[in-house]
Structures are given as structure tokens and as C-alpha cells.
Design a protein that fits this description.
It comes from Dreissena polymorpha (Zebra mussel). Keywords: Signal. This is Secreted protein. By secondary structure, the chain is of the alpha+beta class. It has a single domain, classed as Phosphatidylethanolamine-binding Protein (Alpha-Beta Complex). 15% of the residues lie in helices and 27% in strands. It contains five helices and eleven strands, in the order E-H-H-H-H-E-E-E-E-E-E-E-E-E-E-H. The strands form three sheets. It has a six-stranded mixed β-sheet with strand order 6-1-11-8-9-10, with no helix packed on it. The chain has a three-stranded antiparallel β-sheet with strand order 5-2-7, with no helix packed on it. Strands 3-4 form a two-stranded antiparallel sheet. Strand 9 and strand 10 form a beta hairpin. The protein is globular and about 50 Å long. The chain binds 2-acetamido-2-deoxy-beta-D-glucopyranose (NAG) (5 copies). One 2-acetamido-2-deoxy-beta-D-glucopyranose (NAG) binds next to strand 7.
Length: 231
């Protein structure tokens, strides 16, 4: 079975940042895709990009022993990049195309934990996830299944995994997707957005694997994925 991966972080936390110029903006990835993909590969191996990387040792000198939720880390001693957290470092070499992830949301104000959170009157929000930007999205705006597309042939098989890369929890698993029609796949776990909010800026990763044959989802795998302790 050949595996190919496409990887995209969306960072989820407390504030919506402004959009910065990026090699992976819609305009730039259309005119120079290679530049965007090179940027993703570099970021994938950057162990200073997220909280569980090299910043972790200074942020959490007690390595989680303080019971601070910001310090909960299943790999406290590794100063991870995405590459070391999930794969052998060479896995990213097979990245060869762009995975477009777009969230569409209606804004609103809501009350939680005794506070009213307002979104500055923002009503409709479209988020074209840019894997190279430091934009931070709130859980509210990424709660619905995004529109996910990629270039493919109709007879290809793909598996899409959405994963909370910080706390290492599966947020969606679709297997045996034909072409890029997500609805054609077997839904092992439906996408759900972040539940814990306002702890820290935490990246979510979208991984797409191409495979030459359909894969079988075993009962054992289902049990792990659907375990409520890991949802
Ligand atoms: C595209 O990239 C160029 C330089 O690489 C940058 O100056 C420009 O702002 C980018 N455009 C967008 C829309 O991000
Ligand atoms: C949210 O609150 C802001 C500020 O009070 C207000 O301008 C906006 O209209 C509110 N939006 C909604 C959807 O209620
Ligand atoms: C998702 O995006 C594709 C490509 O831009 C578009 O053709 C399709 O209509 C979108 N689907 C939804 C449900 O918005
Ligand atoms: C679709 O298949 C053709 C023929 O095998 C191949 O050349 C092309 O790269 C494929 N396209 C994608 C997007 O995988
Ligand atoms: C998947 O399961 C079916 C039915 O048990 C079996 O025929 C097939 O060979 C299996 N495929 C793989 C890739 O294991």
C-alpha cells in the first residue's frame, strides 16, 4: 500500500488574527504551488512552531507534574515538530499536492463560564485554512465540518484523518473516500470541532493518505477511535 500525505494545521484558540501574506494564500498557491508545498514541508519539521515543541521545556519545567492543563503532553521529553510527533521525518517528502480546507460559519455572541463572548458583530465567516499562517481561530468558527477538497482521480482511494496534534485526539476519520468526494467514504468518526477552548493555541492537523486498495476498518481500530475517553 502506498501512502501519501497532505498535512495542514489549523490553529484553534482564543482570537481571530488577521490574514498575512502567504505562499499558500489562494492566489499564491494557484500561481506557485511548489512554493507553498515547500513551506509546508519546512513547517512540518519545525520543532519551534507549536507549544509542544522546543518552547515546552520553558513553558512547563515540571513537564505536566503541576496539573496545569497547558502542560498536559503525552510526549514531554521530545520537543516535537509535527514530523517527530507523528511520523518518521521522511514522511513529509511524499507531500505532493494541496489539501484545501474551508470552514464556513455564522458568528454570534454567546455566554460561557459567566462571561459573554462577542465576535465584534462578525456574522458570516469564511476561513480558508492556510497551513503557513499563524492565524488562530476560535472553536465556534470551526465547529462545522469544513469543505475539504484536493486534486484526485475519481477511482483513487483516500483516507482523511483530522487530529488534534497537541492533545493527540482524533477529530475525524473517513476511509475509502473515492476521488475527493468525502461523502463517498466510510465515516468511522464524523468531524467534530475542538471542545476544550481557551487553554492555549493548539494546532489541528488534516492528514490525507492515498492508497491503492480499499482498507478494512477493524473492530479493534474502531474501538480505539471511538473511545469516549479520547474524543
Ligand atoms: C503572495 O506572495 C508574495 C511574495 O511571496 C507576497 O508578497 C504576497 O503578499 C502574497 N499574496 C498573498 C495574497 O498572500
Ligand atoms: C455581538 O455583539 C456585538 C457587540 O455588542 C454586536 O455589535 C453584534 O451585533 C452582536 N452580534 C450578534 C450576532 O448578536
Ligand atoms: C466545496 O468546495 C468545492 C470546490 O471549491 C465546491 O465545488 C463545492 O461546491 C463546495 N461544497 C460545499 C458543500 O460548499
Ligand atoms: C490521475 O491519473 C493520471 C493517470 O494515471 C495521472 O497522470 C494524474 O497525475 C492523476 N491525477 C491526480 C490528481 O492524481
Ligand atoms: C478486507 O476484508 C475483506 C472481507 O473480509 C477481505 O476479502 C479483503 O481481502 C480485506 N482487504 C484487506 C486489504 O485486508
Amino acid at each position: 500500500m502506498t501512502l501519501k500525505i497532505w498535512i495542514f494545521p489549523v490553529i484553534v484558540a482564543t482570537s481571530v488574527a488577521t490574514v498575512l501574506a502567504s505562499p499558500c494564500s489562494m492566489q499564491n498557491r494557484t500561481s506557485n504551488l511548489l512554493n507553498c508545498i515547500t513551506g509546508i514541508k519546512t513547517r512540518f519539521m519545525d520543532n519551534d512552531a507549536f507549544w509542544f515543541g522546543s518552547q515546552y521545556a520553558t513553558r512547563c519545567p515540571l513537564k505536566g507534574a503541576s496539573y496545569d492543563p497547558k502542560c498536559t503532553n503525552l510526549r514531554p521529553d521530545t520537543a516535537d515538530s509535527f514530523g517527530t510527533r507523528f511520523f518518521q521525518s521522511s514522511a513529509i517528502d511524499s507531500l505532493d499536492r494541496y489539501l484545501s480546507v474551508r470552514f464556513e460559519s455564522i458568528g454570534r455572541n454567546y455566554t460561557g463560564c459567566g462571561t459573554t463572548f462577542t465576535w465584534d458583530g462578525k456574522e458570516r465567516v469564511n476561513i480558508d485554512v492556510d497551513p503557513l499562517s499563524d492565524d488562530v481561530e476560535t472553536p465556534w468558527f470551526v465547529r462545522n465540518t469544513p469543505n475539504i477538497t484536493w486534486s484526485s482521480n475519481a477511482t483513487d482511494y483516500y483516507t482523511l484523518i483530522v487530529y488534534d496534534a497537541g492533545y493527540m485526539i482524533c477529530h475525524g476519520l473517513y476511509v475509502n473516500v473515492r476521488g475527493n468526494d468525502l461523502s463517498s467514504g466510510q465515516v468511522v468518526k464524523e468531524y467534530h470541532g475542538p471542545k476544550r477552548s481557551f487553554i492555549l493555541q493548539n494546532p489541528y492537523i488534516f492528514l490525507l493518505f492515498k492508497h491503492s486498495q480499499p482498507v478494512n476498518v477493524t473492530a479493534e481500530l474502531k474501538n480505539v477511535i471511538l473511545n469516549p475517553n479520547w474524543s
